Amino acid sequence: MSSKQARNIAIVGGSGSVGTPTVAALLAHGIHTITAITRADSTATFAAGVKVVKGSYDDLSFLEASLNGQDALIIQLAFMADPSVQSNLISAAAKAGVPWIIPCEFGSDTGNPKFTDEVPIMQTKAEYRNQIEKLGVSSWIGIINNPWFDFSLRGGQFGINVAERKARLYGNGTVKANTTTLSKVGKSVAGLLSLPDAELEKFRNTWAYLSSFRVSQRDILESVIRATNTTEGDWAIEQVDPDQTSEDAKKRAATGDYGAIVDLVYGTTFRQGYGGDYEATKSVVNKLLGLESEDLDQTDRSNILGQPKPETYHSHKQCSMSSSVPLTQAFIHHGSWSDTTRAHPALAWFEGYTKDLIDAQKWDTPAAEHHDPDFWLQKPDGTVIKGADQAWAAVHELYQPFAAHFHDPTFLVLSDTSDGWTMAGQANVFGNLQGPLGETKATDSTGKAWELMTPAMFIFHFVKSSNKAGVALKSTRIFSDSGPAIVAMLKKGLIKPEQLLG
């Protein structure tokens, strides 16, 4: 990209999984004035140089005032967002005279009628494009990136379960499709809005196609096998009929089954002739925007192992150590909190942290009271939030759908390290969603009934600290199945199926 144009850019959802890399990429260009519009009660924080305005998404006058003087509006709402929010933003943008809107597409090719006919929930996105055109003030650019690569690999949506060494392939798994990393989505959006007017005009009321990789399920599996130093013989590989799988998924999706919606989207993406392989017939923006290529194996290693090079992780041949390698025999405990766990200082501290801070929902507690200044959080979707205040705010946001919750450990492994302790744990996370109490279907170890239970795994790093407790949390990594919570929210009417894919 030889020349750039500075713009005033507003973003909604700028602290989310897609918004975070988008804001970072906009800042990296160094020419834009960026405004983040957030809810009045949002605890999200942004880098220096980002103006933050807070208010109600239902207040059109607030939205219009926030959008006055903006050249572009980026909408990157979470799947739980009320659909009316995007409509309100579009109306306010028209009143404020915003020339460009990037609506909340960020997914499959909604410009391909064969795909949207097969996956009907995708058709709802047209409502917002039509609203923009009908108002006649702004123009839209639809961002098509297909499934996010890093999110989908970590979550198993590609049909590849790294932890259990299982793969589920549609047919023989050789149908190609495009997929894009969250980082490249952010860089592409920033690149598009940095184009001169004459170049940006080419995307008026049409789609911009992004891609990190044009790969098949088999390509991804072979790369994962290399990244994990395994062989195909180590994996249980199942082949399913893509047409039958799609039909079954459509029936289940009609009932609000979130897992079926995922099967339908990914299954259709990897079906021949349904547009998942859009690079075969359409140009992607990589070259126009000067975006560098990404390496599939490197990306797989980073997402599976959190390490940049194969020699730095455990394999059949070697194992190198970091500064936080366990120094003594592990403390292993099966079951919930007990006198046994309380005999260990780190676990005694952590039980209090879990019960008296997290489950007590004391979100106003300053991060510094319990966290190291460099505390970081890895969310279930793989997004990493760094900095104690920012990461603590992100922890709060993870639990916002719940009126109450309770973490009930089932297995804990803790070891001393050179700077404190590291712990891996499994827990059942019980919860009641916001709103009137629904049917209670799960019971915790104390006998209390809850609306739902979500299994989760956590990895924590505690460090010795000069604070009053002598312990601080340095990092938290969360791995969980969000399916039970999402299904419950669908049934309770807190979200709608069309919201699940942005």
TrEMBL record:
<protein>
    <recommendedName>
        <fullName>NmrA-like domain-containing protein</fullName>
    </recommendedName>
</protein>
<dbReference type="InterPro" id="IPR051609">
    <property type="entry name" value="NmrA/Isoflavone_reductase-like"/>
</dbReference>
<dbReference type="GO" id="GO:0009807">
    <property type="term" value="P:lignan biosynthetic process"/>
</dbReference>
<keyword id="KW-0521">NADP</keyword>
<dbReference type="Pfam" id="PF05368">
    <property type="entry name" value="NmrA"/>
</dbReference>
<dbReference type="InterPro" id="IPR008030">
    <property type="entry name" value="NmrA-like"/>
</dbReference>
<keyword id="KW-0560">Oxidoreductase</keyword>
<dbReference type="InterPro" id="IPR045312">
    <property type="entry name" value="PCBER-like"/>
</dbReference>
<dbReference type="InterPro" id="IPR036291">
    <property type="entry name" value="NAD(P)-bd_dom_sf"/>
</dbReference>
<dbReference type="GO" id="GO:0016491">
    <property type="term" value="F:oxidoreductase activity"/>
</dbReference>
<feature type="domain" description="NmrA-like">
    <location>
        <begin position="7"/>
        <end position="139"/>
    </location>
</feature>
